[in-house]
Amino acid sequence: MQISLALTIILATLTNAIPVPGNGPSHVTSGILLGWKGIRLTKDMESFKQSPYTSGGGELGAVLYIADSTNLAHMFATQTGYICAIHADPSAWGKIPKSWVRQAEITSGMDKVFPGSVLFASHTAAGVTSDATPWQMGIRASQIGRLGLTVLCYPASNQIVSPGQKLHYDARIEWSIHGKAERGH
Q1: pLDDT tens digits, residue range 78-136?
Q2: Which are the contacts of 169, defined by CB distance < 8 A and separation ≥ 6?
């Protein structure tokens, strides 16, 4: 059973198709897996699935925050929350500019940094002990509708979103992210 689940997760990541639990293998979502978001409350998860939204106050400003690892998503979801896998339409994802944000740009303010780009940066404030190199993505509100996002949410205890899965944004050459990944402190 463990090997079967591990293979399903690996194949789903490679093919960009994630099975929907409980609906059988014929119900999948296709698209580019962008990462995961941790959500604490059922009402927030239901709202987010219907219409992904941004949140303010983080390092990248008012963006939709997405983690490159389930470990980071679990930290925000807690044990009784939800982990949402977020996918984008492959064609739309290929057309949108993407940029690494340097730590100096984060500390000086994000309002005018790389307008129109999806933002990538290290996650400096998380203190995630189970992932020494967490990365985050920020999608601005104006980009959400253009990316054809699909959101699948699972209880944090579901094995399909178990801790230890990581996309390694810093190694995603095929995404053509402008700039260079930089570790924060």
Answers
A1: 888 999 999 999 999 999 999 998 877 776 666 667 888 999 988 655 566 667 778 89
A2: 35, 68, 120, 135, 137, 175, 177, 181
